[in-house]
Every structure is written in C-alpha cells, then in structure tokens.
Design goal:
The protein is of the alpha+beta class. It has 2 domains: 2-168, GAF domain (Beta-Lactamase), CATH 3.30.450.40; 180-327, Alpha-Beta Plaits, CATH 3.30.70. The protein has 11 helices and 10 strands. The strands form 2 sheets. The chain has a 5-stranded antiparallel β-sheet, sandwiched between helices. The chain has a 5-stranded mixed β-sheet with strand order 7-8-6-9-10, with helices on both faces. Helix 1 (2-12) packs antiparallel against helix 2 (22-37), helix 1 (2-12) packs parallel to helix 6 (139-169) and helix 8 (211-218) packs across helix 9.
Length: 329
C-alpha cells in the first residue's frame, strides 16, 4: 500500500514546477486522491478575503447544488480546529454531532478527512475528502493525504506569486505609473472598443523640460524624485478612466477617452500651471513639461500612426520653447 501511494504521489507531482495554472494541478491531485483512496467526492474550500466566509474553489465529484449552497464560517468545531489548532482531522458518525454536521454537505457520509491549505505559516482553507465507508486511516495514508494537501497549497501559493509578479509588471519602478507595455495594451483595447462604440480619444506625450539639467545640477536621484512627484501632480488633473503611463526616460504618455485634443490641451495647461506653483526636493527645483497631443481619427485602428502623430506634435513643441503644447490632428 505504501509503495503504491508513493508512486501515485510522484505521478501527481509531475508538472508542479512548470505548470502555472493551479486549477489544472489541483484537479489532477483531486483525481489522484479519488482513485487511490476510493473517495466519493473532494473539494478545497478557501476563505473569501472580502467576506471571511469559506467558499468551495476547487472540487471533484461534488454535486452542483452543494457547490452553490456551501458558504461556511470559521467556527469552533472542525473547521476552526483546522485553521487554528490541528492541521489534520478525521470526522465520522461517531464524532460530535456539531463536528459531523459542520462538514456535511447535502448528504450523509461515513467518514471525512480534512487537512489545512496554507503557506507562509497561515491557513487559507482546507482540503476535504469524503468516503462512503469508514476505514483505518493509517500512517501511510495520512502522510499521502497530507502530501497531496501540501501540493495543493504549493500550487495555490505559486499562482498567488505569479499574480503578484504580473501586477508588479504593470508598473514602472521609477514613476509608479503604468509600465509602457501595459499602457500600450490598454490603449490597443481602447482603440478596439471605439470600433464598436465610437467615441473620441485624445493621446498626449509629455516631456519634462529640464530633466537633464536637474541631473547635471543635483544628480539623477533628484531628477527621478521630481519626475515621480510630477506624475503624482498630473494624476490629480485627470479622471479615473484616463490612463497614464511611463514613456521613455523622462516622459509620460496619457490617453483620455471621450476627450478631444482641445480639451486634452486645456488639461495639460492646468497641469503645467499647477507645476508653476510648486517646488520639488530640498533644493526647491522648478520644472515644466512640453506636450504633444493628437486624437483618434474616425475609424482609425492604427496604434502606431496615432502614437507617431503625438510624437510629431511633441517634436514641434520642443522646437518652440519649454512649457509648450502642440497639437497634431
């Protein structure tokens, strides 16, 4: 029995290092548990971080009605012990009525094995396995079950980490704004949406007029601080639906749905006017931005052409003087 379970465990763990999708890994684990332990059904319940209730997030063989009805609190019975005291529990008809009823979903059962799901010293839920008959859960079986619960925990932890990395990639480290690639992806989607629901869209590229001179006088760290503070100031002048990203070393790129180039120019003028009243760092540094603005043409789908017009407008603004806005339609 022990060798059979070890073989099943090693087969179930294949792909855990390379597969990023936790659901596929967990479903494989649940199927293995069903086959090796002859379980009736299995599920993983996790705490909803918004409501603190437990919901079934992964299941195998659980009736659909039971999935929808499952909505439990962390009390002082079996579930509470899994979260705060014992990482493993066996519940049978000989257990306390409260324990038995707490783990009951839709129909009676002969035995249920439950183990915590968690990582970094915290419990986020549990794995439950139900049986039609009661049998001895010997050491080998228990270790197998706990190893499978650990594998599920590892898969979920990895998925959480990958989500965090993905979220971090959305942002530019120096400015805290959206990264250029994330901005471009959002702009592509917005342009695509205009083909189905036509609306105006303004695109602006802003260039910090004195970034290099600040570096020469006060150092790169001071220049980065001024750039980041300027980004925070600009955020106060735009709406929640507007999308602001990093662009190059000392530039911002901004698109504004339902806004034309004239309105966008007025917003950038307000931004520059607010900068005129501010100083940055202990050195009381002043700054301003030149800006090139364009807007989406009727039925336009070419992202690169839209950006090129904004860059051309910025080029024309730079040729004039600092603090200049140029529009290219």
């Amino acid at each position: 029995m022990k060798e059979k379970l070890l073989i099943a465990l090693s087969q179930a763990l294949k792909g855990y290092l390379t597969e990023p999708n936790a659901t596929r890994l967990i479903q494989k684990t649940l199927r293995t548990l069903e086959q090796q332990l002859h379980a009736r059904y299995l599920y993983i319940a996790q705490q909803n971080r918004k409501t603190s209730y437990l919901d079934i997030t992964h299941a195998h063989g659980v009736p659909r009605t039971a999935l929808n009805d499952f909505h439990k609190k962390i009390g002082s019975n079996t579930i509470g012990r899994i979260f705060f005291k014992d990482s493993f529990n066996i519940i049978t008809k000989n257990s306390s009525p409260d324990d038995y009823e707490e783990m009951r979903i839709e129909t009676d059962y002969a035995m249920c094995a439950a183990a915590h799901i968690g990582w970094e010293g915290r419990t986020y839920g549990f794995l439950a396995c139900y049986f039609d008959r009661e049998f001895e859960f010997d050491l080998a079986t228990r270790n197998f079950f706990l190893a499978m619960a650990g594998a599920c925990s590892a898969a979920l932890e990895k998925e959480e980490l990958l989500k965090l990395i993905s979220e971090l990639r959305q942002f530019d480290i120096d400015t805290g704004l959206y990264s250029h690639q994330y901005f471009i992806n959002r702009l592509e989607r917005e342009i695509h949406d205009t083909q189905f629901e036509p609306h105006t869209l303004a695109l602006a590229i802003l260039d910090m007029d004195n970034f290099k001179s600040i570096i020469n006088l006060y150092g790169e760290e001071a220049a980065r601080e001024v750039l980041k503070s300027s980004a925070e100031t600009l955020k106060k002048h735009i709406r929640g639906c507007d999308v602001l990203g990093a662009h190059g070393i000392d530039e911002f790129i901004l698109f504004m749905p339902d806004t034309d180039a004239i309105k966008a120019a007025a917003i950038i003028n307000e931004f520059n006017a607010s900068l005129d009243k501010k100083t940055f760092t202990d050195n009381a540094i002043l700054t301003s931005f030149s800006c090139g603005i364009t807007q989406l043409r009727d039925n336009e789908e070419d992202l690169e052409e839209l950006i090129q017009r904004a860059q051309l407008a910025l080029y024309n603004a730079r040729k004039s003087a600092n603090h200049t806005i140029s529009v290219e339609l």
